[in-house]
Amino acid sequence: MSRLRQAARRIWRVASIPLLAIVLAFIVAAFVIVISSVFTSTGLDVFLPLGAYGSLLAGAFGSGTGIVNTLVAAAPLILGGLAVGLGFKAGLFNIGVAGQFLVGAFAAAVVGARLADSPTVLAAPAAMVAGALGGAAFGFIPGFLKARTGAHEVVTTIMLNNAAVLLLTWAVNDLVRAPGFSFPRTGEIGNSALPVLLPRNLHLGIPLAVLFVFAVRWLLDRTTIGFEIRTVGQNPNAARYAGMRPVFVTTLTMTLSGLLAGIAGAIQMLGVIGFYAPGITASVGFDSIAVALLGRSDPIGILFAAILFGAFRAGAPLMQIETSVPIEIIDIIQALVILFLAADLIVRRVFRVRSTKPVISELATVARTWAGGTPPGGAT
Amino acid sequence: MGDQPPVLEMRGITKRFPTGTLANDAIDLEVRPGEIHALLGENGAGKSTLMNILYGLVTPDAGEIRIDGQPVTIHDPADAIARGIGMVHQHFMLIPVLAVAENVVLGQEIVRPGGILDLGEAAARINLLAKKLGFDIDPSSKIEELSVGQQQRVEILKAIYRNARILVLDEPTAVLTPQETREIFEVLRRLRAEGASIIFISHKLDEVLEIADRITVIRRGKVVGSRRPAETNANDLAELMVGRAVSLRVDRGRSHPGASMLEVTGLRAKNDRGQDALQGIDLSVRAGEIVGIAGVAGNGQEELVEALIGLRKPTGGTIRLGGHDLTSASVDRRRDRGMAFVPADRHKYGLVLTYPLDDNLALTRYGDPPFAGGFAGIIRNFRAIAENAIRLMKEFDIRAPDPKVPAGTLSGGNQQKVVVAREFRHDLKLLVLDQPTRGLDVGSIEFIHKQVIGRRDGGAAVLLISAELDEVLDLSDRVLVMFRGRIVGTFPAEEAQREKVGLLMATGGARA
Amino acid sequence: MDAIATFFRLIWELGVYLFTVVPDLLPIILALATPLALGALCGVLNERSGVVNIGIEGIMLMAAFFAYLTGFALHSAVGPGASIALGILVAIIVGGLLGLAHAWLTVSVRADQIIAGTMMNIAAFGVTGYLNRLIITPSGLGGAGVIAPFHLPDAVANLPIAGPVLVMFFDQGPIAMSVLFIVIALQFALFRTRWGLRTRAVGEHPKAADTVGIDVYRQRYLNVILGCGLAGLAGAFLTLESTGSFQNGMTNGRGFIALAAMIFGRWTPIGAFAGALLFGTATALGVVVSIRVPEGDLGNIMRSIPSNWYAALPYLMTIVILAGVVGRSTPPAADGVAYVKEGKG
Q1: How far apart are CA A180 and CA A174, in angstroms?
Q2: Which of A11, A302, B426, C206 would bridge with A295, disulfide CB 3.0–4.6 Å?
Q3: Is B238 in the same domain as B252?
Q4: Inter-chain contact C322–A345, Cβ cutoff 8 Å?
Q5: Residue A204 counted as domain residue
Q6: Residues near B507 by Cβ (< 8 Å), separated by ≥ 6?
Q7: d(CA B272, CA B280)
Q8: What is the pTM of this model?
Q9: Is residue C86 part of a domain?
Q10: How many domains does chain C have?
Q11: Contact B102, B141 (CB under 8 A)
Q12: What is d(CA C306, CA A170) in angstroms, rounded to the nearest whole number?
């Protein structure tokens, strides 16, 4: 009994702030919904938030389809969250998940279309690997630049996101456009599609994403590479003094982060979308940041946070149809969650909780290296 | 003088920090006009906290402050300045990229209408004040271009510019040569003659005896005694300060130097600003010998240490250890060859404060067996890490509840012991110590000094770099003096007298 | 050998071409640079006082939306001129309020500055998208109108050499023209006034500033709010002076390019402005090339470069400039570090 209570207390110590941050975000968002209802044709509606949140919940968990949709939406968020979270561990803020996701999706789509007629056992893994490598390459660039020149990843990854959209549009238009369609897009992926495990598109990518949760956890906790990543994140100077190479660790971490984001793109492409066309947007980018923060950049925490945000994404369309509350309320909730996590003081004050850990201690390194004359730990 | 009413009275000052430390426990202090009042105590005794309370940087939990007999409340430094209190902090509160004049007037700027700075007028006033105090300072030069001693004068100018009548100096001599110390004492006497009251914080007994009119001794947040220099002596003060009889000299014993271990020839390196910080360093350290490097901070010691560790790329010269060329070897390789380093800043380099003790005790050998193994040698061995921690905690008397507590929760002395325990390996060939006892209490200092001598007697070569001249003189078998990136003098221990070494530290040559 | 000769001929032709398009380039550079310059000035004011603000993008977007909403809602009630003027005012106020929020988060609450900025960006994206869908789209009404640019008399505009330069700076809308004056005023204020000295002091060494009685928090609040007001003005420029309409996410990374311009300009107002002009020029080139295609081989090559590449140029340039410049410039020493008064309370 007391052991059970102890375990519960331990979980509460870690999870109380994130959980309460979500509760608070929903409360504040409810005010937004009520106030903004004034501007609609129906006029002020105090009970609108209840209806909207009800539909959101129903859309996400109310049916088998809803649950599958939640899990399908969660899979890329798990990987995207791991990508951001791994970066945090090394004191890096990868805002470029959106771009790496797109490059991964594009690479998977192109290779997938090439191998559309090959057996699935060959085609799907090959397309997945292509997506992973695409994302990794796109993560390597900002990682290498940060390590070598100190150019901060927050700016370079955002710029790469914008550039990726434009350059991939060009690539689809001019390089790999499939014939026979009225708009520019890549060809059918055929046998490269990820196998569906359960009806209504519960595809192989979902267990794969969960597998990566444990892989990343193992890497961080059990290996010397993970120790190096965490040490560079906690104290880059001590890392250098201990004989670690921050240049290498920074580059490697961003590459691995890009790899995870690329896999996210690949499973979305091979499991859901099926072809790459300009205009594909990735809400995964910002969602992943919220997921990583909510999960305290801990892999297991990220798993739960991703399922939660997957549910938001899966349930939001029904909410908009049934209650006319715009889908963008999810972005607002997300921003509020981040707000309350960043300023956990607010949560502590409102709910009077005490003695919990800071959200993510490595974040200090992200700000400290901002535009810093020297790369993390200085140049060697 | 003793009959005059005190200019400053602090009564029952108490401060407990959120960490639980009781830094000040009902402290009483009285300072009279025109006296130099020394506040003597070990590192961590609570002297700086008391002065930060006086200056409005720390809010006391209890107690009363009276100035000229009137009770006052000091909320912030602006209040303190308005009451005529000035403070020269141990870590100077100067902005390196700004000019002297900008630093001095900051907060009480001379402006023309529209808030436009009048730096010309500021310079004129500063020149006037500087002349009065006998300083030679160009108001337009940037702080980062000044020596430590000059920077300290700018700090004093700042206080005088604000019409300070009560001037607090926190460990002002820690970074000075004996000559500079004498000069600053002259300035303090001159200020006293003009009626200013001076609070002089120190842990150095002889200086306190020389300069102070009255000495208040603080131990663990409490006043344990008050003396006049004429009534006391160094041994009495030391016992009062530490709470037990202490030997003031380190018993170094005899050294038995063996073969040459570290050979540095013509070493050159640049600092972060691209200037030549090391201009051809030649030095050697033999096995079983402690070589100390004395020098005023900022003469290239930092760069020398970093070049030896492998954190700074030399632009010329060689570093050899036991015959192996390690000039451009990685940090890792140097450690493999038997080098170990105790860094000056344990929070910046020596420890990861958020990590548990056991990880910190293996931090610099995390990738070597037995701490890692298995597939490709990348699997961490938690059992070996834990066993190592338990062994070292016992051997080095590191006081912590268990090896899993974060290093950041330990006291400064115990943190330094963690670094020392990790670095003082048994297969040690060269030990580089950069200010190994900075900010520690006497007990920890004694412990670490004993360990250093033990390693020397075990055959290790030891290179000690410290801005604390006393530490260098106490521990070293041979003393080198570093000045502007060069070694300008070598003294065997028996010939290394304070004055001689100090003069060389200040001038770099016998000419001056 | 031929290849080398051709290469140099092409370089020469490119130079000639660039020279000939200068009159086309100059008038559009300032307009393209304006939001970047205002954003960069926001960054300078924030970071000189020690606060990193990567939420400039979001602040611009939010201000752009509310400026547009004001202009759009009041268009028929108070007339186009007054509604636009009010729109600009609203944008500056929105910017200032968001600055207040950022200052509160980073200075008082001591939230991580990078995360606070990220939150600002996501919130702006969500709030504007939400209200856009809720209010503007269903109304089916037209735009808010744009400010008519000022035109120089032809006699001045046609002056040799001086003419195009004058056109560049003064044949513009009021916000674009004001940038020049704001830059000069801030440059003077930062290095010659009491406010500027205190700003630099709290950004370099807040504790030193504290010990001479300067209120570090107040100084940082002031700077962040002022700076974000400028970012708000940038938002108003986008909707009310440049395009006359609002689209979701229309800032398109300008807030981040502005940060690169700030770093390029080494945290000085004039330098940041120069950086913004550089990015403005790169963007302008992409526009001009598609209008005035050069002749011959060079024309063929430049035409063969897809338009998406030209569009991506400013983003790629940002990365290159950051990588090239950052290591050689020093940010304010306490940039991004919250100031904690120890032992208080």
Answers
A1: 15
A2: A302
A3: no
A4: no
A5: yes
A6: B483
A7: 18
A8: 0.90
A9: yes
A10: 1
A11: no
A12: 7
Longest dimension (CA), chain A: 67
Check CB contact under 8 Å for A370 and C335: yes
Is B59's CB within 8 Å of C207's CB?
Answer: no
CB pairs under 8 A between B and C: 84
C105 with A342: CB under 8 angstroms?
yes
Question: Are residues B180 and B62 part of one domain?
Answer: yes
Tracing tokens 């500027």 back to the chain, one arrives at C196
Of C251, C243, C246, which is closest to residue C133 (Cα–Cα)?
C246
Range of the domain at B64: 8-242
DSSP 8-state assignment for residue C134: I
Most C-contacting residue of B55, B88, B97, B106 (CB-CB within 10 A), to test interface: B106
- Give the torsion sign (CA, C325, C326, C331, C333): negative
Nearest to A223 among B348, B355, B380 (CB): B380
Are B77 and B45 contained in the same domain?
yes
Q: What is the DSSP string of B473-489?
A: HHH-SEEEEEETTEEEE
Residues of A in contact with C309 (CB under 8 A): 166-167, 170
- Backbone torsions φ then ψ of B116, nearest 5 degrees: -85, 130
Residue C301, min C-alpha distance to chain A (Å): 16
* Helix spans in C79-204 (H): 80-103, 113-131, 137-139, 154-157, 162-170, 174-192, 194-204
| Cβ count within 10 A of residue B321 | 21
Q: What are the backbone dihedrals phi and psi of residue B431, each rounded to the nearest 5 degrees, phi first?
A: -115, 120
Report how many Cβ contacts below 8 Å link chain A to chain B. Answer: 63
**Parent domain of A150:** 9-370
Can you give the pLDDT of all 380 residues of chain A as single tens digits? 578 898 888 888 888 888 999 999 999 999 999 998 887 777 788 889 999 999 999 999 999 999 999 999 999 999 999 999 999 999 999 999 999 999 999 999 999 999 999 999 999 999 999 999 999 999 999 999 999 888 889 889 989 999 999 999 999 998 989 998 999 999 889 899 998 888 888 999 999 999 999 999 999 999 999 999 999 999 989 999 999 998 999 999 999 999 999 999 999 999 999 999 987 876 888 899 999 989 989 999 999 999 999 999 999 999 999 998 999 999 999 999 999 988 887 888 888 876 555 556 677 777 777 755 443 333 33
- For residue A375, is it within any domain? no
Q: Chains contacting A with at least 3 CB pairs below 8 Å?
A: B, C
Number of domains comprising chain A = 1
Cβ burial, residue B263 (10 Å; 0-12/13-18/19+):
middle
The tens digit of pLDDT for each residue in C60-105 reads 999 999 999 998 888 778 887 888 899 999 999 999 999 999 999 9
Domain for residue B345, yes or no? no
Quote the tokens at residue B237: 């003060």
Instruction: Tell me, yes or no, whether B79 and B215 share the same domain.
Output: yes
| CATH for C130 | 1.10.3470
Chain C closest-CA separation from residue A64 CA (Å) = 29
C322 touches chain B (CB under 8 A): no
**Whole-number Å distance between alpha carbons of C244 and B274:** 51
Is the ipTM reported for this complex over the cut 0.95? no
Q: Which two structure tokens, joined as six digits, stand for B197?
A: 């009251």
**What is the spatial distance between Cα A378 and Cα B6, in angstroms, rounded to a whole number?**
52
Angle between helices B178-193 and B119-133 (to 10 degrees): 100
Number of domains forming the structure of chain B: 3
Chains touching chain B through at least 3 C-beta pairs below 8 angstroms are A, C
Kindly give the pairing relationship between strand B316-321 and strand B8-16.
unpaired
